[in-house]
Amino acid sequence: MDKVNNILITGGAGFIGSNLALKLQQMYPESKILILDDFSSANFKNLKGFKGEVLACDVSTDELFYKVEETKIDLIFHLASITDTTVTDQELMMRKNVDGFKNILELAYDTEAVVVYASSASVYGNVKEHIPLKEDREKSPENIYAFSKYIMDNIAKDFSERTGIKAVGVRYFNVYGPREAHKGKFASMIYQLYLQMKQGKRPRIFKWGEQKRDFVYIKDVVEATILASKAPGTTVYNVGSGQARSFNEVIALLNKNLGTDFEPEYFDCPYDFYQEYTQADMTKIKEELGFVPKYDLEKGIKEYVDILENRIEETF
């Protein structure tokens, strides 16, 4: 990313947003970074050490335009949305996620800014075949959260064709890492299992732990998100590790790094819809932007546990 004067991060006090803000601050100390967040699912503690401006704002309302009217935004990272996949209020989800995104695109048009926005691997739905998921495969969103992200992808493409504004989606898979603790029960399964084991409990997972996910470490996610601003045009990129790993493997690695020997406690899955397998095809982002993940599950869990156990400091 070339130097930009003014960067806006929506949802910048959340998990991915705060990690992104602190990395950008390190990379571009002369740039002005403005964070907007309604703090509905964020925590100010995530921004310890942030030197920019933070404003409370619901980007799905006209409040957005008043908050930034004195700033010429060059680059927008749009991460603000309802990310709780258990929310069933369809009107609320669509208003916050889709209407909020449309406001961001209008702001980008007004200021001629580039937009990088958070999409989601959930748009692919419950894939039966165990193959890496390509960006152009058929989409089958199974809940209102996934549907809202699917519609955002459609809107970005249409808006770009009409206005010339570049809007790049980053389709996150299962992200884990520092600054997610505030999410509580919606934090990553890796963090949830770590907490159970720290409390001396057997880690609980659905039978029989062989469900596989593409777990991607937050540092790789931040790097890919920043690189996405260099995309040649409006498009969507998968952001994962490119590997599908089981929950049994996660528990084994947590045991190894904690020095414990907990056996999993298996129980029946209570959900009608549950993704058994996710794996990102990372070919497109590698070929177009040169992004290659630096963290496999072994390296990511080791660093994360070391941070949680205060063996090392959080660094970028």
UniProtKB/TrEMBL annotation:
GO MF annotations in UniProt: ADP-glyceromanno-heptose 6-epimerase activity; NADP binding
Domain (NAD-dependent epimerase/dehydratase): residue spans on this chain: 7-240
Signal peptide: none
Keywords in alphabetical order: Carbohydrate metabolism, Isomerase, NADP
InterPro entries xrefs: Epimerase_deHydtase, Heptose_epim, NAD(P)-bd_dom_sf
GO term, biological process aspect, one: carbohydrate metabolic process
Alphabetized Gene3D superfamilies for the sequence: NAD(P)-binding Rossmann-like Domain, UDP-galactose 4-epimerase, domain 1
NCBIfam families associated with the record: heptose_epim (TIGR02197)
Name of the protein: ADP-L-glycero-D-manno-heptose 6-epimerase
Organism: Hydrogenothermus marinus
High-level lineage: Bacteria, Pseudomonadati, Aquificota, Aquificia, Aquificales
